[in-house]
């Protein structure tokens, strides 16, 4: 029933005046009636005199009167008019208010007879109303001798602020002709203000009912009026900015105004400028799409000519929003339309900046002719039939076509799939180029998702020798890494000059000439912004103020009466207002986005198919939108992004939310819709709880691909929404879980010492008391611990983990207890307290065996059992059990491989290689490091890549390769740049030994000093005995026997204190060799 009622109401809104005129064969009268704000109810009350006043010819008046007199059945009339005559839906509007107040009315009332004053007051009100109406303003309210007027509602005009200013000046002049009973001229003050308001809600009842304006603007206008001297018009700062190119204004200063924050500037209108001065000094600063780019077009076409000869090109068109990038692109397309070529269009969307390869997915779906109704098998057959060179299996994976009977699972890692997608899309374009030249258009690249940007960057070298040109449009904020490539050229679009503006005008009018003074006015008012020129000129042509002849347009009245917009907002709002019968369809489409599909719009429009198609056809005919594809499955795009913005922002927030709510329902019912799309609309609908869950789902999906950048962006959106929720226990806990997930994504992407991960864990730790969930608490402690552990503060790491062990001691769940024990054991080993770690490791392993869950890797980055064995074998070796250490290391690596979890295998590999460094087993270290190298590259894990580079350099040091120390320095710099210091002392020890063996004791001494400094800073003491032993070896090389003996004794003392029997044995051997020498 609710949907039926909505449909009935929508039908009523869409079918009033236009449908009645169509039925009566009077459609040619629609424009003049709409321009005069005449709807069907008002029409039936008008007289012949009214028709004459609005300019209808005798024949038109007769035909219209006959149609009215014929009457219409009540039911039909009801279907053709809004449910309540005269009631408009409230809207958000950019409104200029004018408040006029007669000076000295109280004194006049005291001096003269009330009947005489009533006559003066009536003349005053009629004069004001007549002037305001002449400038198409709206008299909103009479308040005794005060009159409130609106410009910009109920119908917007292109220059509403200027209309208000002219009205104010004309009113001041006209009132001089009105005399008080004693013959003295009356005077008035006027104030004007411009701003965003909500207008149209009805308040009051019966005769007291009125359409209210909610916002500061009317109050500010009234207050500014009070500042004016008699005979003055005073305007607010926002109004002054809109009129200063046409009026001389003088600053009155800043004033404290009740209800306004801070001092408010006020300006007096001194008078209207001459046409010449306005032309010279006009400084409109509006930025919107442009046309008329002959020089720029020539430059792009020159690049296209090169591309056609096999010199691949990339041209980046940069410019602010609305400056003309899309128009220039269309001009290029038109220019080469007769040439034999292929065109590939990638359109980046502001709502899909976090959806991997979104432009490619949409382009391929369209190019392959894939339909929602196709089966998976049909889609696969279309791919096979249409793809030139790309592997259908990879494209099917990209398009998420599930056809297990056709293709088996891809034996590729997610990162390999991502790389193959980039490779195969590039291969497809190159294959097309072997047939004929290819133009690849990438629209709005500033909204590209990271994967699409990576795809563009990866193809530059591949197309350098191909017949391909990539034409990219983007705003100046577009960030990329291919600007220095030799095939890339950048073209920044600037504003048009006067000659180019004249060319634009000629195209708009179809070659018909405009009056010279009108052209000068347009040039002055538009300041070289092509869309402003275009929209302004079309508005003037459609306004009725011009008469069209065979080869020209002629003014029907003075130029001052021509509807010329002062701002783009007003111009676009005026065009939307002219579409009153279908305006709401445009607004609904705007809620979907700049681009929208007909099926999606049909789900929320609540009108039948024929009415929707009619509305879309009218929007297309008015050039408000462009269509792509067949009608039933068509997709549309607003001609300009800011057209869409104006339509969207004119809706009340509550109305927007209703539409976004419907979109959420529609997309959630569509299994092919990505959750981030539903999440966006849930966010805009104010469905905060649903938005949190949908953003989290989108993040999990992205994390699984893996698309870490997109996943992190989704989680930030989820957290933004979660912050708005009541601080109830389950939502506070959900917020903690989101923070942990965000941190873990950054760890996987950037490493344990990621700044973003540390910040997320720090925020979670501040809120940890919000949850009793032991698993979540330990995850937060783990994340908070890992940064100082792997960073440069083992002492703080130990304090944190000791708090965790204590916190988890009474926890019945074994998982948190085993994790906390394993963490403390790791910290103890690096601090040089290996014997103490065995008890924690023993208890952790017992808990691991008793736990019911087998796979921990998805929650804690690596399997805890493997982690336990890794630290066990390191502690075993330090404490002198080398045979046991090797056996445990084999066990850890085998278990990691069995799990087939890349992060766990690399973790085991790190510790295994570390053990090999201690034992000097170069061959084993090299083999395990190669395994780490493959996995870290396949999954694009930057920290593990860094460890591989460090291991390469350390192994080279152990093998006495000449450049090994320098390579290690470079690898360690990159490592520390990530915030990592763990085991740097071990790596520097190997560097010092290599330099000493190479005969460079001074360099070895320098490396050792660095190691000691790092040890002092970080508290990493497990290598301290070894560092002193190496110091002794350096002293021996320098024949400092006493110094060597002291160093060896210090090494022995530390090793004994730490229970480090392997290091004690090393120190004893070195000391024994010294004594024998």
TrEMBL record:
GO molecular function, one term: adenylate cyclase activity
One Pfam family of this chain: SAM_1
CDD domains attached to this UniProt entry: CHD (cd07302), SAM_superfamily (cd09487)
Segments forming domain Guanylate cyclase: 96-225
Biological process according to GO: cyclic nucleotide biosynthetic process; intracellular signal transduction
Domain of life assignment: Bacteria
Keywords per UniProt: ATP-binding, Nucleotide-binding
PROSITE patterns: GUANYLATE_CYCLASE_2 (PS50125)
GO cellular component terms, A-Z: cytoplasm
Keyword ATP-binding carried by entry: yes
SUPFAM superfamilies to which the protein is assigned, alphabetical: Nucleotide cyclase, P-loop containing nucleoside triphosphate hydrolases, SAM/Pointed domain, TPR-like
Protein name per Swiss-Prot or TrEMBL: AAA family ATPase
